Amino acid sequence: MSQTTVGPRKVTERQNWTEATPEVLYDKCVTLANNLWWSWHPEVVNLFRDLDPIKWRKIDHNPVVLLAEMTAEQLAERASEMVLSTRINQAHRRLKEYLSKTRETWGARETGVLGSKPVAYFSAEFGIHESVPIYSGGLGVLSGDHIKAASGLGVPLVAVGLFYDQGYFEQQLDINGYQHEEYQDTHVQNLPMEPAIGVDGKQVTVSINTRDGVLLAKVWLMHVGRVPLYLLDCDVDGNNPQDRELTSRLYGGHLRTRIRQELVLGVGGVKALRALGIAPGVYHLNEGHSAFAPLEVVRERMADDGLTFDEALREIAHRTVFTTHTPVPAGHDRFDAGLIEEHLGPLRDKLSISPAQLMGLGRVEPQNEHEQFCMTVIGLKFSRRANAVSSLHGHISRRMWAHLWPWRVEEEIPIGHITNGVHVPTWLAHPMHQLYDRVLGGNWAQRMGDAKIWQNMYHCDPGELWETHNELKSRLLDFVRRRLGRQGRRRQEPDEVVEAARTALDPNALTIGFARRFATYKRADLFFRQLDEFATLINDPQRPVQLIFAGKAHPADEPGKQLIKKIENLRHDRRFAGRIVFIEDYDINVARHLVQGVDVWMNTPRRPKEASGTSGMKAVLNGGLNCSILDGWWAEAYNGKNGFAIGNGSQHVHDEITDQRDAQYLMQALRDQVIPLFYDRDVDGLPRHWIAMMIESITTLASRFSAHRMVIDYVRKCYLVAAGGLSSEMDRL
Ligand SMILES: *Cc1c(COP(=O)(O)O)cnc(C)c1O
To answer: What is the atom index within ligand 1 of the atom nearest the CA of 614?
Structure first.
């Protein structure tokens, strides 16, 4: 507590005699850097950038590092050169206001029941900003967007995750196009993290008993606007050397590493909250990784209130919300009885249940000794409210887990859906934001969940929208050129190759973006099944097409790596040289540039394997048009005139036949719809019909697929019900 009183007092005293001493200015910048609120406020991002633009880029846009390498005097000098003081003061004031004005939020009005008993949101990864490498991809970005939106809405929520000091890997392609993985150490002092202080005034450390000894984890705190994010870290004195590295990397390779990470996240996470004096009213398990958590909550209830296991289980299940993200059976974590007993044995003793009973909780057929313990199964059994992440994924999940409720027909399987959404301030480019300010009115951001606001887009000046889009497209091309040059230099490519990067791509050509994890079901190669036809299509001199690819393959996914290699090497094929580029190291930064600047965002998953997908929603906000298989979110978003569909949403039982058909459909969509529409220009050179489609896309999709809407749905359909107490039965959303 002493820390919180010392900090502000220091500043106020100084303010009395002078506003702008270097130290005051510096302190304000530090305050800004220490709350990730800055990351979704372009004016604050630009402020940090303007302090040292070259370094800013070099250090991965990390303000903590930027400030550490600068004295207060240097900062003040730079601030006066660039006239930054006013901007610093304003940003600082806005942050203070944001943090103090919690009573005026939507959450304060609508989430009264939660009050002092917040939602505890568990996730194995959080993608908040590229400078905080504790995410690998879509799941993490979704969690990050969820907590940012909860912060904005003022929903009482605390988040729990793991701190990975090496994060996910950095991707580098060698001269042959083959992916290599690099792991960098991230130092705690370079991140906006502080020790999480417990009720005893010390940094919280939790200990978890296993049959094989004690596992320790210390707890860090990161501020994401109004939401505290607690991160558990096993690099603690007292752990053996192997365990100290347990949380170094996301999704550690072996099953034993995996179950230990999940033990720390779930069981350790619940213990951490208790040590912090936080008593959650609702537990939200985002994907199965954290599904051990309810077991520890049950233990607490039994110990504190003398409930039996069954009583405590029933009560805790009512307060638990579970979200599943995986429509592929193999994608769910499963462990055998040996690993379960080793890691949960001591907890099981306290729960007074037998090994067979515990295993039964993770099995579809509790008595089936051949069945492993599945994290999704325990997640479903332990939650009053369970949901998939798109309408189509809801159907798939109900079918997939129907045998858990054999007495019910499929429609009555208690798995509903809440479609994912994206955090608008994070993904919306500043120039588009300004355009919306002009067209939708100044306070549109507070009311963005209201579909009516977006109707004003129909009055938008097409020329202005097109100009804004082209400004963003040209920013994207600058970024791509810079990256290509850097990649070439690193690989020691010939000078002319590096030189050519400066002018790569054509700002007037139809530009298609494709970036995602290189899992085979995502079919990045669907383009190339008809290579000759495709080459002819994109090389029409009147109507050229170019493609920008990015994405990582899992280190163990050899087919994924071969796919990357194939695409990267197309640059040596005369028909594709200069028309297809691959940007290394897909992350939030690369994603932001791509979704903000492309004309078309392409998605070609093998239906129905894409649970939702969110990158296409980011493109919508910025005026990009989706061209996608009718899978995931697009199956419910596409209305015939707000983008393009590849195929008709059917699939064959044989993947090979599905793939062949979809490749045909893709060529048809490009040849008959996308390319002609883009190049259909009026006398002013404007593609009127294309722009109309951009407007239709924004108007019909922006509010529906925002994280704002998503979190409101979670509050209304899950959190409030879970916090409200008992009901006789699990029910569908
Ligand atoms: C948005 C995002 C994703 C998820 O997008 P998908 O559509 O699910 O592929 C993955 N990685 C990054 C870096 C993102 O920004």
So the answer is: 7
Q: Ligand 1, atom 5: nearest CA belongs to which residue?
A: 615
Write out the two tokens for 732.
């569908």
Nearest residue (CA) to ligand 1, atom 6:
613
- Retrieve residue 63's tokens: 């303000």
- Ligand 1 atom with the smallest distance to the CA of 587 is 13
In contact, 325 and 358? CB cutoff 8 Å: no
Phi and psi angles of residue 35, each rounded to the nearest 5 degrees, phi first? -130, 120
Domains of the chain in sequence order: 4-100 (no CATH), 104-169+180-420 (3.40.50.2000), 465-705 (3.40.50.2000)
Nearest CA to ligand 1 atom 2: 138
- What is the DSSP annotation of 577-631? TTTEEEESS--HHHHHHHHHH-SEEEE---TT--S---HHHHHHHTT-EEEEES-
DSSP state, residue 191: S
Cis peptide before 608 (omega within 30 of 0): yes
Residue 124 CA to residue 129 CA, distance in Å, equals 16
Residue 96 pLDDT more than 50? Answer: yes
Q: 609 CA to middle of ligand 1, Å? A: 15
Nearest Cα residue to 227 out of 162, 161, 282, 148: 148
Give the burial class of 684: count Cβ atoms within 10 A of its Cβ; 0-12 exposed, 13-18 middle, 19 or more buried.
exposed
Q: Identify which of 24, 12, 19, 8 has the alpha carbon closest to the alpha carbon of residue 73.
A: 24
- If you average pLDDT over residues 645-659, what whole number do you get? 94
User: For the residues of 320-376, what is the DSSP string, one character each?
Assistant: EEEE----SGGGS-EE-HHHHHHHHHHHHHHHT--HHHHHHHT-SSTT-TTSPEEHH
- The structure's pTM equals 0.96
Mean per-residue pLDDT for 122-130?
98
CB 279 within 8 A of CB 117: yes
Would you state the pLDDT for residue 19?
57
Cα-to-centroid distance, 347 and ligand 1 (Å): 36
Q: What is the pLDDT of residues 338-371, one digit of tens each?
A: 999 999 999 999 999 999 999 999 999 999 999 9
Is residue 5's pLDDT more than 80? no
Which residue, by CA, sits nearest to atom 4 of ligand 1?
138
How many residues are there in the chain?
733
- In this structure, the residues whose C-beta lies within 6 A of any atom of ligand 1 are 137-138, 141, 516, 586-588, 591, 613-615, 618
pLDDT score of 4: 38
